[in-house]
Fold this protein.
Amino acid sequence: MLSIENIKKTFNAGTVNEVKALQDVSLRIENGDFVCVLGTNGSGKSTLLNAVAGTFIVDKGSIMLNGTDITKWSEHRRARYIGRVFQNPFTGTAPNMSIRENLALAMKRGKNRGLGWGLPKSLISNFKKMVTPLNMGLEERLANPIGKLSGGQRQALTLLMATALKPDLLLLDEHTAALDPKTAAKVIDLTQHLISKDNLTTLMVTHSMQQAVNLGDRIIMIHQGKIAYDFKGDEKKHLRVNDLLALFDELRRKDNIDPAVASLIEEYYV
Ligand SMILES: Nc1ncnc2c1ncn2[C@@H]1O[C@H](COP(=O)(O)OP(=O)(O)OP(=O)(O)O)[C@@H](O)[C@H]1O
Ligand SMILES: [Mg+2]
């Protein structure tokens, strides 16, 4: 279980550029839950994932993963338990290394053992088995540099790498946003398959309401660094894209009104 208690993160505190990116966020995610995270640009979605992954240490609050307090752990230490895929296909892989070297690196995630360039045959055949079902022709290109692959191929591969060791937690940050619709759909299918295969606990940021409606069993909407809505169970099952759009409109309307009134409304809704 991921248990986040009252975390806060302020960027550039005390300067004119101060941003309260996370304001007292608490969240519990049971093992096997698949949570979609929605929110407008700059609402704090990536900051939430980064806080969990350890990109920075939170200013306040605590983060527990399966009963272990990881609040002060480095990003590298957390990487052993947390798999990640980012929006940019060029993040999270080493472009000049071959596909199989990248996969090998993923298999050693967080283990500090160095690469070991002579990859055993068994590992290579294992990789072939992993990439063949993608139908992207990657099995023939395992020795090629990963930097030569298309965005979709890279995202699919990054996803395989992030899930290869069955992480305790999978963090996906708009990992299909940079892809064309057809490729995005393929990568989403793969995402769903990999998550359900190992029942992975997942936090997936998306801008696509359709994805949020179709995937997972919970939807969280972030607004101004706070969790504005949290839908689970039947409530989530019955949510449709139009319902989500209406909620977004509501949040936007609140933004445009007098701050004093807005905070009153917020107390009511949040
Ligand atoms: N490293 C940083 N330094 C300063 N400000 C930051 C940093 N990272 C995020 N912010 C600010 O924190 C706020 C939340 O940003 P965040 O990236 O979490 O938003 P987001 O919801 O992921 O948006 P998007 O949908 O555009 O990806 C924004 O105002 C952003 O400018
Ligand atoms: Mg973001």
Observations:
- Strands lie at 2-11, 19-29, 34-39, 60-65, 68-69, 82-85, 169-173, 202-205, 218-223, 226-232.
- Residues 112-117 have pLDDT under 50 and may be disordered.
